[in-house]
Specification:
Length: about 120
Amino acid sequence: QKQLVESGGGLVQPGGSLRLSCAVSGFTLDSYAIGWFRQAPGKEREGVLCISSSGGFVNYADSVKGRFTLSRDNAKNTVYLQMNSLKPEDTAVYYCAADLYCRRSPSINHYWGQGTQVTVSS
């Protein structure tokens, strides 16, 4: 059974940083791509970043370029989303999703975590 569990969300002031984790089980990170998505209140879910099974990166959102980065630890089966210089507009529930390839559209990613709330506010 493929499972994904996000953690690391919370309340942070503008300009601050957070690191989200996506711990996976039931598969390995060298066989599936892991994408990060977010959904703000009243908005559609959108793609943020993705790391492919071979370790390549895909940026889905211009708004996070230069601020958000991805990394992974294959031994821990965990992908990390490092978020720096956070802005109020980054406030959302953040989800990780797994599929064979990086897929921008949330609707075609097969496996999802439960999400973790990130709130950027002073």
